[in-house]
Amino acid sequence: MTAIALTIAGSDSSGGAGIQADLKTFAALGVYGASVITALTAQNTRGVSAIHDVPPDFIAAQMKAVFSDLAVKAVKIGMLSRAATIHSVARGLARHKARNIVLDPVMIATSGSHLLTRNAVAVLREELLHRALIVTPNLPEAAALTGASLARNEAEMEVQARHLLTEGARNVLIKGGHGHGRDSVDLLVGQTLKRTFRFSAPRVATKNTHGTGCTLSSAIAAGLAKGLSLVDAVGEAKAYVTAAIAAADRLDIGKGHGPLHHFHAHW
After folding, report:
1. Is 213 a catalytic residue?
2. Contact present, 18 and 11 (Cβ < 8 Å)
3. Distance from CA of residue 16 to its chain's centroid?
4. Which pLDDT tens digit goes with each residue over 188-245?
5. 169: which of 64, 138, 186, 187 lies 20 to 30 Å off by Cα?
């Protein structure tokens, strides 16, 4: 049976992040991608200039259309923007018995633009954290979700990840891309995992990192849709994103933070 993954996220008009990055990732990894759009952004490599939120009832209609017809094996959740959107998505996930949910708590774009209202952070934590198989915050997002300072090392990263487990998360992948040092290290902890899994890759010197978080979370969802274990899905996703970042400078897109090269293995 064809592996199908669904992305529930915002649209990036420049094509580097959000829905567009997710669908590119699914395609590059051999998975059929469907989409539910939560917001439209007027966006390019230099920033987000406007956001138009999709009405909650239309988000629900999109979810119903997809789940009533397609055998969705994994769901990636990205930009949700506001509390009303989160409520709608949470109800839809429960109604359609969605599984293998990957929650990327998108709060701030690579350019620095805010993509989630401050009053929606608590709603996201309360309504979606426990529904996801895995949550994938970067360092600033983990700090915001836990009310802590930015983690400075792996020990502090793990403390924050485990704090999210106490908040109801089942598994947490805390990403070290915003950190420093020769290597970029991500840590995976879980309620039932017997140990902490460490995923490390050499840090790539490039400004072209637009859509990195979207790409990683959708790559994990693609792996889960294909039947991989969670640990294997994370490992393969880390390898894919690292290669896409390494190849990013082969593209010449925009004047700011350019996108990853999602099709580095094909072009």
Report:
1. yes
2. yes
3. 13
4. 999 999 999 999 999 988 999 999 999 999 999 999 999 999 999 999 999 999 999 9
5. 64
